[in-house]
Specification:
single chain; about 425 residues; alpha/beta; 13 helices; globular; signal; EC 3.1.1.-; PAE/NOTUM; cell wall
């Protein structure tokens, strides 16, 4: 009965989003993609549930969520060979780019710890089971909750709207708190993140590396964080417009890598394609070549498709016309061009599969299971592990859709 209740809750939320225009992606408290992921995790697995820890020291530092509440994380302690190894997973969940959407967001788990789940399931890269997470199951695994709306990079406020944009301070307060709880002794560390958290793992990668001695093995992983500065179906740039609002509203420009901002405008430096070649720390990029979120919210959002020509296609790739598929193939090529310089480094890793998907590390079925997505017979978990532990160089790019038969496609009704 409990499982069925969760299903109906998820369906009800998804329906409510549709009828209230929630797919105007500026308001991303719970996207359809997240609802889908939550349903899969809840129904098919029996995951470890990990409680929320609020960072009590954050308040004095002004490191607070949009509504001024304390930020938090979920931590499952490592043991055995993983006792001094740390995996930090930065939560995703879109962005807010104006006062209206940020005010809305602060009444949700994406802007206030008041609304955060007190326990969350640890699946995929966060799983505590060796058969589900062979390389990281006994590490200290931390999920840092996302409540600032700017990928942990803003630092300003809007007093009139009672909004605190303190993502950078939250990031620093969380790292300081975890350092005091043993992370300073880490022999191995991996900063990872999904979606907006995947972007954050790129933005904070070198900063994270510099928190540890040179003798520590420190790397970064971005899952579904390769957001492209791409042209949408109307010829505009929907995502650039959104990012411009985020950067301007939340004071992000002060916390972007200077190696980028001395050459480009701040909004351009919020796009990972303009950052990844200059990151000094070893970085792994995991992305679907046909990223479902980018298709729905950047390439073919309703605002760029007023007549609904793309409506069916954006929800289900099987309903795309030949011309629409050519457009999406062009998007894949743009993604591959964006990683050309990055891929030249021997230290970096790549796994670009030709799936209509988004966030593949946290879901058990896509991270490591009997029928997980593979490229050249290598599952995502094995590819990431081989790269992290230097067992093999990993730069794997799939052939174009529809050649990959191992994909777990996201299809929305």
């Amino acid at each position: 009965m409990m499982k069925l209740s969760w299903v109906w809750i998820v369906i009800a939320i998804a329906f409510l989003q549709l009828v209230t225009g929630f797919l105007d992606f500026n308001e991303t408290e719970l996207s359809l993609i997240e609802a889908y992921d939550f349903g899969v995790s809840k129904l098919n697995y029996n995951p470890l549930m990990v409680g929320l820890t609020l960072i009590t020291s954050a308040g004095a530092k002004g490191a607070v969520c949009l509504d001024g509440t304390l930020p938090g994380y979920h931590w499952h302690r490592g043991y055995g060979s993983g006792a001094n190894s740390w995996l930090i997973q930065l939560e995703g969940g879109g962005w807010c780019n104006n006062v209206r959407t940020c005010v809305y967001r602060k009444k949700t788990r994406r802007g206030s710890s008041t609304y955060m789940e007190k326990q969350i399931p640890f699946t995929g890269i966060l799983s505590d089971k060796a058969e589900q997470n062979p390389d990281f199951f006994n590490w200290n695994r931390v999920k840092l909750r996302y409540c600032d709306g700017a990928s942990f990079t803003g630092d300003t406020e809007n007093k009139a709207a009672k909004l605190q944009f303190r993502g950078q301070r939250i990031w620093l307060a969380a790292m300081e708190d975890l350092m005091s709880k043993g992370m300073r002794n880490a022999k191995q560390a991996l900063l990872s993140g999904c979606s907006a958290g995947g972007l954050a793992s790129i933005l904070h990668c070198d900063e994270f590396r510099n928190m540890f001695p040179r003798t520590s093995k420190v790397k970064c992983l971005s899952d579904a964080g390769l957001f492209l500065d791409a042209v949408d179906v109307s010829g505009g740039r929907t995502l650039r417009s959104l990012y411009n609002g985020v950067v301007g509203l939340q004071g992000v420009q002060h916390n972007l890598p200077r190696i980028c901002t001395i050459h480009r405008d701040p909004t351009s430096c919020f796009f990972p394609q303009n950052l990844i070649s200059n990151i000094r720390t070893s970085l792994f990029i995991l992305n679907a070549a046909y990223d479902s979120w980018q298709i729905q919210s950047s390439i073919a959002p309703p605002s760029a498709d007023p007549h609904g020509y793309w409506h069916e296609c954006r929800l289900n790739h099987a309903k795309c016309s030949a011309s629409q598929m050519r457009f999406l193939q062009g998007f894949r090529i743009e993604m591959l061009n964006a990683i050309k310089g990055f891929s030249q480094s021997r230290e970096n890793g790549l796994f670009i599969n030709s799936c209509f998907a988004h966030c593949q590390t946290e879901r058990q079925d896509t991270w490591f299971a009997a029928n997980s997505p593979e490229i050249r017979n290598k599952a995502i978990a094995i590819a990431v592990g081989d790269w992290y532990f230097d067992r093999a160089g990993v730069k794997i790019i799939d052939c174009p859709y529809p050649c990959d038969k191992s994909c777990h496609y996201l299809v929305f009704k």
